[in-house]
Amino acid sequence: MTITYQNIIIIGAGPAGLTAAYELVKNNHKPLVLEGANLVGGISRTEIYQGYRFDIGGHRFYTKVTEIEQLWREVLGDGFIQVPRLSRIYYNGKFFDYPLSFKSTLSNLGVLQSGLIIWSYLKAKLIFIVNKKEPETFEDWVIHCFGERLYRTFFKTYTEKVWGIPCNQIQAEWAKQRIKGMSLKEAAINILFGKSKAKSLITTFDYPILGPGMMWEAFTDAVEKKGGKVQLNTKVTKINRKDTKILSLEIEQEGAIKTITAEHFISSMPITALLNRIEPKPPEKVLNAANKLSYRDFLIVALIINKEDIFPDNWIYIHAAKFQVGRIQNFKNWSPKMVPDLTKTCLGMEYFCSETDELWNLSNSELIKLATQELEELGLGKASLVEGGTVLRQKKAYPVYDRNYYEYLTVIRDYLATFENLQTIGRNGMHRYNNQDHSMLTGLLAARNILGEKHDLWEVNTERSYYEEFTEQEWQKKVN
After folding, report:
1. Which of 109, 121, 259, 267 has the least CB density, counted as fewest CB within 10 Å?
2. Which CATH architecture does the domain made up of 295-399 adopt?
3. CA distance 423 to 12
């Protein structure tokens, strides 16, 4: 067993880890980044199959955090294209514009249903005024903001498909982060006038011309040019501590076991895995809390279709319960460079599931067959046009905000706060459903903590970095 020394070790080469590494190399440090996969970017990577490029979900590059925007431009330069956002909702056999438009909503729902939705909204507001009870679950929160009828029309089925649990078992905190700024009032303004200040309603976004993985490959190159190192296919098997200080990591690479010591450690690995690899073990209360945190897994079936144009959207949400597919990406509509042949199309049929589900354990050929059948039944493409495809399974894609999520996470946060040289960052490192700009922000501030600044990473929540809700002035106040 070889023992080597590094000053700073970063676990994970996703947006959070690579941003931390980049900030450190800019300040004359040479961190070592350890990544278990064979690609950088984490869930924001770009996979390639027979020349077709596809995301693990879609990743827009849009932020109001000026410093994150500057990092994107600094690292990728002119590698961006501007992409118009177009997406729709499939519900009850019909396609609705998203954001909602007057034409599609009225024509699909009709005057009566639209009126009942307005009445349901007013009723929900009256109930809140009388009871003055703050929403505790996703279901409560959406009904409070939109009314029960719209909740059951556009939220319930899709949300339960994504998370695999009833909406009344999902914390309201998730809705506050992901839908904040939207209400029926905002939706109505958008329907009637095409205008809204809600953060969910951006109409254009930047996108790396070869997919989001292009950004993280550029970050990797920049880190290594300045003396840092990004080491792929490296699994962290053990984290050695003495009291409240991390001393070393045990890693496995190509069958060889090594021990690496360091002064500082930053981790973006799933927080449950982190705590279960620490030796001596954390207190039983902490381990129990970690093991009760839940994740939602994700798989994507990329279908190659012998047709130039399938539909104009970047993506479509499938709210109908009869279909297992949750969302469909049209990668050529994100960037034409995502396909090697412009006479063909690559669609990403996205399925939300868990490792124990029957769906997850289907063979690749069975999943391709299922995706092909659902595509035709949705009326989006004939099965005879599908020339082939591939399947990618992503474990622990989404941290679940179930009923006891906050209780468990509080126990873990309190324990992690006792360590003097360990910081956790990113979506999985903090068990928070966030976007890549938020993940980058946690990585940036973790690096600056090592450089002598003092930032509480847990205070950097999604609202502070997500779209219109976070201003440049608020960012400058936070970092200064």
Report:
1. 259
2. Alpha-Beta Complex (3.90)
3. 13
What sign for the dihedral angle of Cα 460, 463, 466, 467?
A: negative
Closest CA to 334 of 467, 202, 208: 208
Instruction: Please list, in sequence order, all residues whose beta carbon lies within 8 angstroms of the beta carbon of residue 109, skipping any fewer than 6 positions away.
Output: 117, 153
pLDDT in tens, 76-87: 999 999 999 999
**41 — alpha (psi -120 to 50), left (phi > 0) or beta?**
left
Among 3.40.30.10, 3.40.50.300, 3.40.630.10, 3.50.50.60, name the CATH number for the domain at 2-42+61-80+210-292+402-479. 3.50.50.60
Which residue in the block uniquely carries the two structure tokens 């409240």? 244
Q: Give the end-to-end CA distance of the chain in Å, rounded to a whole number.
A: 44
Question: Between residues 266 and 91, which one has the greater pLDDT?
Answer: 266
pTM of the predicted model as reported, rounded to 2 decimal places = 0.90
Distance, in Å, from the CA atom of 157 to the CA atom of 260, rounded to the nearest integer, reads: 47
d(CA 352, CA 137): 21
Question: Taking the domains of the chain in order of start, what are their residue ranges?
Answer: 2-42+61-80+210-292+402-479, 98-196, 295-399
Cα separation of 456 and 451, whole Å?
A: 14
List pLDDT tens digits, range 297-336: 999 999 999 999 999 999 999 999 999 999 999 999 999 9
Q: DSSP string covering 197-260, please?
A: --GGG--EEEEETT-THHHHHHHHHHHHHTT-EEE-S-EEEEEEEETTEEEEEEEEETTEEEEE
